[in-house]
Amino acid sequence: MSNQTFLYHPKISEVLRNINKVMIGKDEEALLSVVALLAKGHVLLEDVPGVGKTMLVRTLAKSLDCDFKRIQFTPDLLPSDVTGVSIYNPKTLEFEFRPGPILGNIVLADEINRTSPKTQSSLLEGMEETNITVDGEAVPLQRPFFVMATQNPIEYEGTYPLPEAQLDRFLLKLKMGYPTDKQEMEMLARTSGSHPIHEVEAVITRDELIELQHQVEEVYVDSTVHRYIVDLVTGTRKHEGVYLGVSPRGSIALMKAAKAYAFIKDRDYVLPDDVKFLAANVLSHRIILTSETKFEGTTAEDIVSDILSDIVVPVQRNVSE
Amino acid sequence: MNLTDKHQRFYQVAIYICGFLLFMEWLRPLEIIADFNNVSVFFIYAAFCFFISFLQVNWVISVPLKLLGLIFIIDGLYMGERIFGSNWFTVIYDQIMYNIQVIQGQQWWQMTPMFRSLLFLILLWLMSYLLFYWFIVAKRMLIFILLTIIYVTVVDTFTIYDGKWAIIRTFTLSMISLGLSHFYKEMEKEEISFKQMSSSYIWFFPLIGMIILSTLIGYSSPKLTPQWPDPVPYLTSANPGAGSGKGGEGPVQKVGYGENDSRLGGGFIQDDTPVFQALANDEQYWRIESKDTYTGKGWEDTLDGETSALSADDLEFETFTNEVETEERTSFLNFTGEANFNKLVYPYGARSLDQFPNNTSLELHTNTGEIDTIRDGSMTQVEEYIVEYERPSFEYNELREAGGEDPENIREQYTQLPDNLPSRVENLASQIVEEDDNRYDKAKAVEAYFAANDFEYSTEDVEVPEDHEDYVDQFLFDTKLGYCDNFSTSMVVLLRSQDIPARWVKGFTGGEPTDESQSVQGEDLNVYEVTSGNAHSWVEVYFPEIGWVPFEPTQGFSNNTDFYLEVESDDDSDTTTDDESDDNSASDENDPSNPNQNAEEEETEGEDDTNAAGASNNNNQLPQWIAAGILVGLGVILYFSRFRLMAAYLERKLKKNQDRDTFERAYIFLLKVLENRDLKRDSNQTLRDYANKVDARYQTNDMRQLTTYYERLLYRNESDQKQMNKVTELWENLIKKTLS
């Protein structure tokens, strides 16, 4: 990570240290997950099975003193399995609401692309609103509410790829990637005894987390940086390899993520550096490439880094205003 | 004084002495190019001021010391009164008040020499302070060194000052002082104490060795000859305000009568300021003096020769003998305020003066015919007088048949030639006169030679001979372009090489006739207006038993002397007078029929010249290119020093008003400088990444720190006044690193 030299917010650095105990060489993914958590966004983890997606979420959840729920998506999962269901209680003669896993603080939606679109949308809708509707009744979601969804890459068999519009609702998309040889060897060494996840202890309470989220909102973003964000987003819309560029929701997402990142870096204002660092993870899943570009093997990440190298970083007030 | 101080002191003294010697290079040329008589006094005062400045004593001591020195010099140079006497103060006060008035009236030229000296001494004073600051405190001498080099080259190019050795001295001194100060700065930067440098003088030897070596290589290596014609005539002609002197002190003067002819050459511009009005029958030469010693560069006179007092009633001075026919004439001369040669202006054959002020005495230099007008022991300009004279008429045959030996003293004095006169001059003279058997025809042949061989009259683009060149030789064989001094001097030298006694005469031509006429002592006389532009030089050739006869070799001028031919067959002995101009016309195709229109002729010549200049435009463009080159050079210097200038400006501003605008400007400027130092920030690079790159290059942490402050300013939109000192310090560090 390029900006390792800078100090982290003390609370956050404890969380990151926890994750580092369990995950090897996944500092950046851990950091980005915390960014999403603090920005009140959600994360989509995309990679092949077995690279530690679930482990990352579990460790994170364990570091926070929050209610952790896990949904294992299968093709036969129903929406009510996600949201919960009202059951008739013969004793009280009333329907009683049995909350589904979505009503936790931290929700791990494992292999979200293996279930039917109907069930997927029951989760995704909840991510966007502060309520879910069960049996015509609005049920408020927990605060904080943080979804980490994992999915296998879409080219694998037996999956229902998430619709592009739905992807927009994730603040960040992460890829885990395989560990290096050295990391993998160290991993084997660590897991030979008891699993390190058992040693992880919660370092942030729920209230503290809500307070941190609130502080993130206070982070200052100068119009100079607004300009930079808009330039980047507009860049995706103008890029010739892009069929559909980033929506205005993407601009907001980028700004929110940048605020959270700046906060983690113990700074009360956003730098273009923050924006630049997050751009690929925030923007790439919001871009639909043209089919020609896809056939050429260019990925959305390539497009974003292409745009990053084109857009001028504002370093002077008169240039930006 | 401990060891550290001693070493440090040594470097400071060495650098400072170099600075002083460099400054001396500015003063040296003044003796030659300006009318400075006591340059050594100024040298001494400059040294004095430099010494006091170096001592770094309190100003309470240093200012009175310097002031005292200044007063003593002014007193010694200009004041008759006892120093600090009551009169003394009165004189000083009057002088200062007068000069202040003059300055207020913007009549700079009327400032008195004393006041000008005073100003100059104050300038020296200031310079001593400035140079101390540049060389010792700031240790930035490059600009001064460049200025010195430019000054020396300009002075060398545009004046007679020879900067050959000056440039070598300047180079050596510059290199020594730069080398020393660089070493000194390096020690400071690395914080090496002078104490650790017990043998710190050793490195000095390679420096000196390198400087000597490079100086020797530079001195002995072949150099291109000048690639362009001398730019001076072009520049002077382009600027009518700055003329070159004909017979003036060096070539930087306007046309007019002057005394110093030791260096002839250089162009001049016409000046129609009236000098005197002459009432006379006809146009004639107005003689002032002759000169006898040709130096190869110009004329010296032997003024230390005898002088004798003359009476106004009887001017016992003759240039010709009683054998010559004469005619009694009267002239009235009325001088304007411009005339200041303090000498008698007289026609040939002057006998006596009327209406001449009684209190003015005349002193004749017998060698030259120069008659000083003296009142109360000092030279003075007489405003007007009437001169009675006997206008000579020379008879051709008498001149041709003039026989007999030249008197010993005349032959000795007036056939003098410099030893290093190129032999081709003498060969040419022999060639010109080979067919003539008498002195008159020989003289006429030489006089006619110029017109017959395409010599051109011009007051512009006239060369000044270089050190190794002879003035006459250059004119006769190289340039063939010049004005009266060139023609007359050449004729004298040519004749002298044939052992014909001849001398060079200065004065005025007859001037411009006006339509008026006035009656003086019962005679109706024409009025002639004589201007500075009528200042002229011509030739007198000695004929035994006849005396000195004027000749006019200059193209476009006619001889105002009467010559006549006695026709033997005539019944009576009446003579037909014949104006010499006709005689001259054979040799001068351009000569207009009217012989009395000298001024017009000169004008015609002037126009011809302009045309000629137009035709030879290619030559004239080169100086333009040179001027453009100098401008471009200056531009380049400015361009390359722009960062330093800007850095100095911003540094000052940053220290003074620590606001965010200045900081932003300074930071952006730093980015520019870095970009110029091959550390370009890509447009997509954030400041932080760039700062890492910069710090990696300079192995510091300063850029990251400074960038953090700047980020806060730009992206947080707030600036911390408390941190501005730190910011300024970081910025200075970085700017120093990048600019070094």
UniProtKB/TrEMBL annotation, chain A:
Domain ChlI/MoxR AAA lid: 236-307
Domain ATPase AAA-3, residue spans: 42-172
Lineage top rank: taxon: Bacteria
Any Pfam family hit: AAA_lid_2
Keywords, comma-separated and alphabetical: ATP-binding, Nucleotide-binding
Matching InterPro entries: ATPase_AAA-3, CbbQ/NirQ/NorQ/GpvN, ChlI/MoxR_AAA_lid, P-loop_NTPase
GO MF: ATP binding; ATP hydrolysis activity
UniProt record similarity statement: Belongs to the MoxR family.
Name of this chain's protein: Magnesium chelatase
Taxonomic lineage of the native organism: Bacteria, Bacillati, Bacillota, Bacilli, Bacillales
TrEMBL record, chain B:
Cross-referenced SUPFAM superfamilies: Cysteine proteinases
Residue span(s) of domain Transglutaminase-like: 476-555
Residues annotated as transmembrane: 9-27, 39-60, 114-135, 142-161, 167-184, 200-219, 625-645
Record keywords: Membrane, Transmembrane, Transmembrane helix
Region feature Disordered, mapped onto this chain: 235-254, 569-617
Acidic residues composition-biased segments: 569-591, 599-610
InterPro entries in the record: Bact_TGase-like, Papain-like_cys_pep_sf, TgpA-like_C, Transglutaminase-like
Recorded coiled-coil stretches: none
Name used for this protein in its record: Transglutaminase-like domain-containing protein
The species this protein was found in: Halobacillus andaensis
Originating gene: yebA
